[in-house]
Amino acid sequence: MVPSPRRSLDPSDQVRRWYENELGWATVPGNPVRLPLGLRFDVLDMPAEAGRSALRHLAPGSPVAVQGDRMRLLVAAGSTEELPGLLDWLEWGTLALDLRATGEGGLMDAPLPPGSGSTGARPPSVRSDALRGAAVWLRPPEPGCEVEVSLPTLSALGGSGDAPDLVRLLDTVATRCHRLRLWRACAQPLALP
């Protein structure tokens, strides 16, 4: 007797399984697959142009995602609560920066696992998937590794010493966001009456 054909897995089921089984991360029901924030990590969301300069402040295992023209840096859970005070302390608190932090209660689109793609035939480039609007990993998390030890944290609040410093990361990102805002403002033609 020939077994009946199996139905193919929905791509979102494969993505969900990778997060839950390979990484041990929670996902939220629904499509697209989303990751709850505030449990294992919070997210700093910024223009990708500004985020590139922050990569040097991250540990090699620190996950970084890209979606469209936005970069998402994973930071230690609870960091979002500290950011307004840190921005004020760094004297960035009064400026409008294209920088958002999301923590407990927030959601992040789950980037496609490394090597997967919408076509399934071959892995697409990070750039092409990101430009199409799919969230992709620029630096993916590694299965079997605890992501928390590689995330930026406030050193004074019990960081392991190996984790990147959240203050330096935030200062770099705020500086780049501000410079990007100034550059864009200068690139606009003057409005004459």
Task: Give a written overview of the molecule.
With about 190 residues, the chain is α+β, with helices and mostly antiparallel strands. The protein has one domain (about 35-105, about 115-185). Helices cover about 30% and strands about 15% of the residues. It has five helices and seven strands, in the order αββαββαββαβα. The chain has helices at about 10-25, 50, 80-90, 125-130, 165-185; strands at about 35, 40-45, 65, 70-75, 100, 105-110, 135-140. It has a five-stranded antiparallel sheet. A two-stranded antiparallel sheet has the order 1-6. Helix 3 (about 80-90) packs across helix 5 (about 165-185). The longest helix has 22 residues, at about 165-185. The radius of gyration is 19 Å and the shape is globular.
Mean pLDDT: 82
Report the sheet-strand fraction. Answer: 15-25%
Distance between the termini: 82 Å
Kindly provide the radius of gyration, computed on alpha-carbon positions and rounded to a whole number of angstroms.
19 Å
Helix content percent band:
25-40%
Which class do the helix and strand fractions yield? alpha+beta
Largest sheet: 5 strands, antiparallel
Order of strands, main sheet, comes to: 5-2-4-3-7
Instruction: Indicate the overall shape.
Output: globular
Number of helical segments with 4 or more residues: 5
Strand runs, count: 7
